[in-house]
Write a structure and sequence with these properties.
Blueprint: H1 2-15, H2 17-21, H3 23-26, H4 40-59, H5 62-75, H6 80-92, H7 96-109, H8 114-126, H9 130-143, H10 149-160, H11 164-178, H12 182-194, H13 198-211, H14 216-228, H15 232-245, H16 250-262, H17 266-277, H18 284-300, H19 305-316, H20 324-335, H21 339-352, H22 357-369, H23 373-380, H24 383-386, H25 391-403, H26 407-419, H27 427-443, H28 447-460, H29 465-477, H30 482-495, H31 500-512, H32 516-528, H33 535-547, H34 551-563, H35 577-589
Helix pairs in contact: 1-6, 4-5, 5-6, 6-7, 7-8, 8-9, 9-10, 10-11, 11-12, 12-13, 13-14, 14-15, 14-16, 15-16, 16-17, 19-20, 20-21, 21-22, 22-23, 23-25, 25-26, 26-27, 27-28, 29-30, 29-31, 30-31, 31-32, 32-33, 33-34, 34-35
Length: 595
């Protein structure tokens, strides 16, 4: 609401420039009044305060201006100019009632001031108090008969209040002042239709066709009017004459289709529909709008998707200069949950418009839902050329290569992806990119690069759980910076206290720091939360038991770990052979082995 007052204040400040252009009038018409209600001294003081207030207002010192206008009002309480200026301040300050009352007083004190009345009427319009606004504008139309502004405002308000007879009358006055125009005639035509006065509505359109005989729009509207009132033969005659002169005039072609449909000539309607949709001379936008109308009508009636699909196929059989039709077709198929059928259509979209991001993302979502990394690569790879700043394509392309164990390609894609990160990038996505990049570097034993990537990930999102966990775990395995590792790992456990992986990481860091009793608490929590199915976690559990002197339980855990088969899904990194050998040595020697 406050913003409204600010905008209104600025608008009215500009309108008050009429006052500034004539300072004698602005100072309450002092120089032109035959009898000044003020004494000479009062007038001098009033003029000084008023002009100083104007100056302060122009400087932006509104507090001083408001105070000076108040002094003016003390000297001359009925000054229209001061009341007007103060009304704007009241509006700005949110004192709407006081502002309205001051504005009405200003209008009463200076009934011939156009700007005061215009401001009051605009205020009522902003409040959607149409009747009060109409009253003011009607008064202005009488006092200022040569001005168009009040009449144009009245035309809008009469339309809003459905006062169509008054609307026609004011449109006639506008025509008298400004001359006949297409816009005014069409407004009168619509008003007559609302009044159900078909004769006069026909007359307005006829006047336009007479004035613009070569403009087929008005002749088509005339035909549509005939059709709407059941004068079908006359409508057909109009459409036929238009299409004889301009065979590819789309509005008349569409109206003729409506004629065939209304008169029950289904075969001719189908032929006419086809002729519109496959006609290369009909603009694509017109075809699109017509097709949308057909879809809407189908959804409201028989919901026969086969008919709509048949029409789309006919259109797609012709050369497409834009991807609009194909995209609309794909959207229709998607709305009908016909995923399989939409795929070749979406591919067609991309063959016409390779930069069409929505179509590519839709195809990508299908491939991801089917867990088809080859299809993900097919769809996403070209996007790096056509949509190089779209981070999602790098992400899914890199993950698809990773899933196929193509780590070199995955690393290359993620490197390119992080190069697209800028100040406008989503911080969460940027953090995830660096996190995955860190994992890839670590797999290749590029430890310095991995830790740098993890640090970058945490710059963008200090609470990236995946980054914190992996970073902490790798530090613990290398027995490096364990305090930092513990701090990061603790955050993950606090965020997800039932996550077996995070509990295991924290337990292992405590193990490396020699805090075996604490480590036991967390490793047993990990086991209770699904960790008993993980070879690594079960082995860690055995290691901790061994350090606590429970050798039998340790050996039991190590043996159990050997029976657990690690997942072999695509994209899963198999456990290094040296770690398996180390686990077997623990079982064989019945003691903890570090390397």
């Amino acid at each position: 609401m406050k913003m409204y007052y600010i905008l209104l204040f600025l608008l009215l400040f500009l309108s008050s420039c009429g006052t500034l252009r004539n300072r004698e009038r602005a100072a309450d018409k002092a120089a032109t009044e035959l009898e000044d209600p003020l004494t000479y001294g009062e007038r001098r003081k009033f003029d000084y305060y008023f002009l100083e207030a104007v100056r302060m207002k122009q400087k932006g010192d509104y507090d001083a201006a408001f105070e000076l206008y108040g002094r003016c009002l003390e000297i001359y309480p009925s000054s229209a100019a001061v009341l007007y200026e103060l009304s704007q301040f009241y509006m700005f300050l949110g004192q709407e009632q006081k502002g309205e009352e001051a504005l009405k007083q200003a209008v009463r004190r200076d009934d011939g001031n156009f700007w005061y009345k215009q401001t009051l009427a605009s205020y009522y319009q902003q409040k959607q108090d149409w009747l009060k606004a109409i009253t003011v504008y009607e008064d202005m139309a009488q006092i200022f008969p040569a001005r168009l502004e009040p009449l144009l405002s009245l035309a809008e308000l009469y339309g809003r209040t459905k006062s169509y007879d008054r609307l026609v009358a004011v449109l006639d006055r506008i025509e008298e002042l400004d001359g006949k125009s297409e816009q005014i005639s069409m407004e009168k035509f619509r008003a007559y239709l609302q009044m159900d006065n078909m004769e006069k509505a026909f007359g307005e359109i006829q006047s336009l066709t007479d004035e613009y005989p070569y403009d087929m729009r008005y002749r088509t509207v005339m035909g549509d009017m005939y059709l709407s009132v059941g004068r079908n033969d006359e409508a057909l005659k109009v459409y036929s004459e238009i299409l004889k002169e301009e065979p590819d005039y789309a509005p008349a072609m569409i109206s003729l289709a409506s004629y065939y449909q209304k008169t029950g000539q289904d075969s001719l309607y189908a032929v006419q529909t086809d002729s519109i949709l496959v006609n290369e001379n009909v603009e694509p936008g017109v075809k699109m709008n017509f097709m949308r109308q057909l879809i809407l009508k189908s959804e409201q009636t028989d919901r026969d998707s086969t008919k709509i699909i048949g029409l789309f196929e006919k259109m797609m059989g012709r050369k497409q200069t834009t991807a609009d039709v194909a995209m609309l077709y794909a959207q229709y198929l998607i709305s009908k949950k016909m995923e399989k059928e939409s795929v070749p259509v979406l591919d067609r979209v991309l063959s016409i418009d390779p930069e069409n991001k929505p179509a590519r993302l839709q195809l990508l979502s299908y491939a991801i839902s089917r867990n088809d990394p080859d299809e993900v690569i097919r769809v996403a790879e070209p996007a790096l050329v056509y949509s190089p700043d779209a981070m999602e394509f790098y992400y899914y392309l890199g993950m698809a290569h990773y899933q196929k164990e193509q780590t070199d390609k995955a690393l290359e894609v993620f490197r390119k992806g992080v190069q697209q990160i800028n100040g406008k990038s989503d911080k969460g996505i940027a953090s995830d990119f660096y996190s995955i990049l860190g994992d890839l570097y670590h797999q290749r034993e590029m430890k310095a690069e991995a830790y740098a990537a993890y640090d970058s990930s945490l710059v963008y999102n200090p609470k990236n759980i995946n980054t914190l966990n992996n970073y902490a775990y790798y530090l613990s395995v290398e027995r490096t910076d364990l305090d930092k590792a513990e701090e990061m790992s603790f955050i993950t456990v606090k965020e997800e206290p039932e996550n077996a992986t995070y509990l295991d990481t924290y337990a292992w860091i405590l193990f490396e720091k020699g805090r075996y009793t604490e480590a036991r608490i967390y490793i047993e929590q990990a086991m209770r939360n699904g960790g008993d199915k993980s070879q690594v976690i079960v082995e860690h559990c055995g290691d901790i038991y061994f350090k606590l002197g429970e050798k039998e339980k340790a050996v039991e855990m190590w043996k159990k770990a050997l029976t657990i088969e690690e997942p072999t899904d695509e994209g899963t990194v198999p456990r290094p052979e040296k770690e398996i050998k180390r686990l077997k040595r623990k079982v064989a020697l019945k003691r903890y082995v570090e390397n």
